[in-house]
Amino acid sequence: MLKKITHNDQLLAIIISSKFSEPGIRFFTPDDFSQQLAFMKHPQGKLIQPHVHNAVKREVHFTKEVLFIRKGKIRVDFYTDNQTYIESTILETGDVILLSEGGHGFEMLEETEMIEVKQGPYAGDKDKTRFESNVHNFNLI
């Protein structure tokens, strides 16, 4: 229900299955990540005190993105920073993934709706280096 994709001690991704459930608040990311990911489950009637967020200067060097799979099925291919294929995994409706390091690519196995959350503003071509896939039609369905 919770899967971490790693390569040579580098955390590439955290996948939270749609079936994951645990009471309270559970953070999945290390404290030093510029993008934090948590799961929250509270009972009816629980109150979260109103609050505002303070201006805190943060330095972001690499984009980390979170994808929420609203509908569909996709294959995610993981690569090293040097663009070498590592492995693939399948995400389905309700799954969530945090992509933290390394490279990644996607194939839509069904019509898919996703919501993406990442640091901004988006810098266009300055934000990413595109490369050709070296995945050879892996069948993970």
CATH architecture of the domain at 1-20 and 63-122: Sandwich
The main pleated sheet reads as:
5 strands, antiparallel
Q: Which whole number gives the mean pLDDT?
A: 89
* Fraction in beta strands: 35-45%
C-alpha geometry: globular
> What string gives the helices and strands in order?
EEEEEEEEEE
Structural class: mainly beta
Radius of gyration: 17 Å
Overall strand count: 10
Q: What is the CATH domain class of the domain at 1-20 and 63-122?
A: Mainly Beta
Helix count equals: 0
Distance N to C terminus:
18 Å
Question: What is the CATH topology classification name of the domain at 1-20 and 63-122?
Answer: Jelly Rolls
What percentage of residues falls in helices of 4 or more residues?
under 10%
Low-confidence stretches: none
Spatial strand arrangement across the major sheet: 1-2-8-5-10
Summarize the structure in words.
This protein is an all-beta fold. The protein has a domain at 1-20 and 63-122: Jelly Rolls (Sandwich), CATH 2.60.120. It contains no helices and ten strands. Strands 1-2-8-5-10 form a five-stranded antiparallel beta sheet, with no helix packed on it. The chain has a three-stranded antiparallel beta sheet with strand order 7-6-9, with no helix packed on it. The mean pLDDT is 89.
Present the secondary structure layout:
Blueprint: E1 2-7, E2 10-16, E3 24-27, E4 38-41, E5 65-71, E6 73-79, E7 85-92, E8 96-99, E9 103-108, E10 113-118
Antiparallel strand pairs: 1-2, 2-8, 3-4, 5-8, 5-10, 6-7, 6-9
Keywords summarizing the entry:
141 residues, mainly beta, Jelly Rolls, five-stranded antiparallel β-sheet, 0% helix
